[in-house]
Amino acid sequence: MNEQLLAALSQYGPPALCGISAIAAVGLPLPMTLLLIVAGSLVSQGVMNFWWAIALASAGSIAGDVAGYVLGRWGGSAVLLRLTRLLSRRSGLDRAQKQAEKWGGAGVFLSRWLVTPLGPWINLASGTIRYPWPRFLLWDALGETLGAVLFISVGRLFSDRVLALAALLGDTAWALVALAAAVFLAWQLLMWARR
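Predicted structure:
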């Protein structure tokens, strides 16, 4: 699938990046970090315009995030329950709801560019807990724009080592998620041991 996505990106440019970003933000597991880095490489080769790539990648991601928020907000818990049963991810949604309540805007912001695997779950959870729409949109737009600028710039700077860099960044994101889970589990164990 990566080859088809990369071919679409090189053939159609920023509009393809916008569409793929929207689909990935809704929750389809697509290699967005890789695509943004490749877009940066295409920018350095003169195939894409830097600002258009950032604008359309951000706009697509924001549109997908808003779709997830709306699904959580107006679909309510019943739709989310069906979705999580289908995906066998109920515990992921429960954790995301707790984190969305606890972290608020910072959680939305950080899940756009630092711990991107949590992004779609944070969108659904933010809608479900009725996190204020204007604040969600503000933090989402800031995070998605920062992510697009960051990864496209990295791809632009290191265009000759794009695949190795993308693998490293993907591993780092998952390592951060694993570290957060380990810290949470250690904290839970500590609380359990104190009782």
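Summary: The first helix runs from residue 2 to 12.
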